[in-house]
Amino acid sequence: MSEAVLDGGAQEVPGKEGLVEDWARDKQVFGVPWGKAMMWIFLLSDTFIFSCFLVGYMSVRIATTDPWPSPSEVFALQAFGYDVPLLLIAIMTFVLITSSGTMALAVNMGYRKDRNKTFWLMVATALLGATFVSMQAYEWTKLISEGVRPWENPFGAAQFGSSFFMITGFHGMHVSAGVIYLLVIAFRVRNGFYEKRGGNYEIVEITGLYWHFVDLVWVFIFAFFYLW
Amino acid sequence: MSYVAIADRDHEQEHHDPQTFITKYIWSQDHKVIAVQYGLTAIFVGLIALGLSAMMRLQLGFPDQFSFINPENYYQFITMHGMIMVIYLLTALFLGGFGNYLIPLQCGARDMVFPYLNMLSYWVYLLSVIILLISFFVPGGSTGAGWTLYPPQAIMQGTPGTDWGILLMLASLAVFIVAFTMGGLNYVTTVLQARCKGMTLMRMPLSVWGIFIATILGLLAFPALLVSAIMMLFDKTLMTSFFMPAISSMGADPGYTGGSPILFQHLFWFFGHPEVYIVALPAFGIVSDLLSTHARKNIFGYRMMVWAIIAIGGLSFIVWAHHMYVSGMNPYFGFFFATTTLIIAVPTAIKVYNWVLTLWEGNIHLRVPMLFAIGFIFTFIHGGLTGLFLGNVTIDLPLSDTYFVVAHFHMVMGVSPVLVVFGAIYHWWPKITGRMYNETLGKWHFWMTFLGTYAIYLPMHYLGFAGVPRRYFAMGNTEFLPDSAQDLNAAITMSALFVAATQILFFINMIWSLLKGPKSDPNPWNATSLEWQTPDHPPKHGNWGHELPECHRWAYDYSVPGYEDDFIPQNVPPDKAPAGRDHGEDH
Q: Residues B481, B475: contact at Cβ < 8 Å?
């Protein structure tokens, strides 16, 4: 932070006390718009929700006495006559990570005030997100047709299906909400909604924060549920 | 982005003053109106919970005298009383009520940063309360699982309200958490980003500090409750087995397999223990301000008070399993959690010493808010000391699930915060309504409540030592309990009914004040913090008229030598008064 932020006449204090002084100083604690600060705090809270889900899942996985189904077999797909483990999940993960890339480009275009490109990149992000959710729906359908239910499944411990539907479902809801959120903001960008408010496109970045968070959570779900 | 000196970003907040009755008082986005809405709703459900406790006491004091109380009702009363008091009354009142009212005013902001979200927060909270109240009227009634809702019994046949009551309870909790999150994000962001010029964090009144840290605790602790509520809903409706082991119920196999009931306890208490401090920290903060204002002395050790609040908040996340000493844990866990629990005594004791030292040689005005604040110190020390007993594993084991525990937590997180709630209402009443209440009636209210609650909870410690278990509908012929235990129970019931009836004084006083009370001075207590310096009294929409206040000193410049008044408001510039102390360092 520059000198300009210093309280009238206040001196820079070194060390631990300086850290406290800096935080407590006569300014906004975070040099970002209110909405962005709030989104970060929300994501912190949401992190705790997903952490609790994942810890709960690990805990029941350890607690149950029935054998845990092997994810690489349950989630295998037939391709060209071979069983390819985790094929669909790999594609889903690729799609979602790609959407983070288009989102990052959209944020960049937003700050350049290129409304048209921002719009299309956000729509592309939303479409990739929708593709992810559709593939998840396909995966659910396939597992349900194989007899996997929240309360039982033919492969082993009942908690496998319970955790799977609960965690991927909760994440899928986040992605779906994100798709709607992205589309709303994208159309507002195109309509010139933000031109009337000082031409400020930080909202694109705030939307992006949420989107990247949802992607990041998926990486953890992927690691802890599918790879373990 | 260029630096904005603690933003007065007026252009971002559109100040169209609401015109109609509906936009002004119903769909209001004004933090002060939302605060009152939160407060009234919370007090309303709180009165229901008070009624429930009276019913429980009737049964305990005079067993089998009342045909309308059977064992099933009794468990439902226990459950709903606990849940309502902890979450729907105290959490909502401190954060939604006082948080909403005090944060923008004491920080010198025009409103919360996102007023619309703030409004939604209240309406979603109201929805959660409505869902909760509906559960009284569904077939089977509300849940009787105890406020901790432990599985397996919470969702098994035999517990009252397993058909609908538990579903509505869990749904209501989930909705409450959504409401709290919307409000909580606002409170935290407002404190961090929207303070007025000169209001450094270390100049904020301790009320704001307490509410601020409590809100952060809420944002990090409620997720655990949300997750456990969702899992239990699935266990109930979809027959999943997150918390349910293979179990036989009434001779039949309900079909559960391999879940972990202990997992629920961990999740619940990971929320449940911070929840204690979500209720206590705002009380700590508010009581500091009441003591300082009415003793005309600066709060002793302001910096340490802030650090103690932060330390207690941090520690509260690593003590949860002290609620589970009897659940069956690795003994080393008990060692760890007992240690962390007892460490909390250090910052807490710092706070208590500082409160007492604030009173030392102060110019004490025993007005009603001050009486409640001093009463709080008594009940809080009392409840805190019994906490030391229960924090130790070996002492906790025999005392667990006895009336000693009931006495402990009612002292420390029931009576203490409620005394602060009353003190705070009396203190800020003139600011909220612009009218004064009757001082004598207020004093009667204090003394009857304070002495009455002691008469309720002090004997409970003895009952606990004697081994009277809690949550029992009736003792039956218990060999080891003397008959006098029943006499004591009858006496406790009399006191409880007396205290409950006493609260009528409070409502009479407040209604009288609203209708006929004398107009109050804008700053009747000669207080320093910004909410007493508003241009309008009571403050209008936008709080500060055209110009935001500027803060030039900490909130505790009382009895500063060489100044004509015995208080210097925070917005008095340095050229008009002795340079104020900043945050308690010695000059």
A: yes
Kindly state the tokens that stand for B195: 């303070």
Report the distance separating Cα B114 and Cα B223, nearest Å.
22
Q: What is the pLDDT of residues A34-48, one digit of tens each?
A: 999 999 999 999 999
Q: Encoding tokens for residue B450?
A: 């304070």
Surface of A (105-164) touching B: CB under 8 A:
150-151, 157-159, 161-162
A225: left (phi over 0), alpha (psi -120 to 50) or beta: alpha
Please state, for a pLDDT cut of 90, what percent of chain B lies above it: 83
Q: Contact, A103 vs A211, CB < 8 A?
A: yes
Mean pLDDT of all residues belonging to chain A: 89
Residues 6+ apart with CB under 8 A from A10: A21, A25, A26
Structural domain spans, chain B: 31-244+259-576
DSSP chain A: --GGGS-TTPPP--HHHHHHHHHHSSS-SSSS-HHHHHHHHHHHHHHHHHHHHHHHHHHHHHH--SPPP-HHHHT-EEETTEEETTHHHHHHHHHHHHHHHHHHHHHHHHHTT-HHHHHHHHHHHHHHHHHHHHHHHHHHHHHHHTT--SS--TTS-HHHHHHHHHHHHHHHHHHHHHHHHHHHHHHHHHHTTTTTTTS--HHHHHHHHHHHHHHHHHHHHIIIIII-
A117 beta partners: none
Q: Go through B353-371 and write b for each residue having 16 or more CB atoms within 10 A of its CB, e for each that does not.
A: ebbeebbeebebeebbbbb
Q: Topology of B31-244+259-576 in CATH?
A: Cytochrome C Oxidase; Chain A (1.20.210)
Mean pLDDT for each consecutive 10-residue tract of chain B (587 residues)?
Answer: 41 57 84 96 97 95 90 94 96 97 95 94 97 95 94 91 94 97 96 93 95 97 97 95 91 90 96 96 97 95 95 96 89 92 96 96 95 97 94 93 96 96 97 96 97 96 93 85 91 96 96 95 94 92 89 91 90 80 50
Residue in A closest to B551 by C-alpha: A26
Asked if A136 and A88 touch (Cβ cutoff 8 Å), the reply is no
Q: Does A188 touch chain B (CB under 8 A)?
A: no
Mutate to test the interface with B, among A22, A45, A61, A196 (most CBs of B within 10 A): A45
* B253 and B265 Cβ atoms separated by less than 8 Å: no
User: HSE on the CB side for A113, CA within 13 Å?
Assistant: 7
CA distance A20 to chain B (A): 9
Distance CA B316, CA B350 (A): 16
Contacts of B138 (CB under 8 A, 6+ apart): B163, B164, B165, B168
Residues of B in contact with A34 (CB under 8 A): 7, 12, 113-114, 189, 193-194
Domain A32-227, CATH homologous superfamily name and number: Cytochrome c oxidase, subunit III, four-helix bundle (1.20.120.80)
Residues in chain B within 8 Å Cβ distance of A150: 234, 238-240
> Does B271 contact A at CB distance below 8 Å?
no
- B273, B281 in Cβ contact below 8 A? no
Instruction: Give yes or no for a contact between B282 and B95, defined as CB atoms under 8 angstroms apart.
Output: yes
Q: What is the DSSP string of A65-80?
A: -SPPP-HHHHT-EEET
Residue B402 contacts residue B468 (beta carbons within 8 Å)? yes
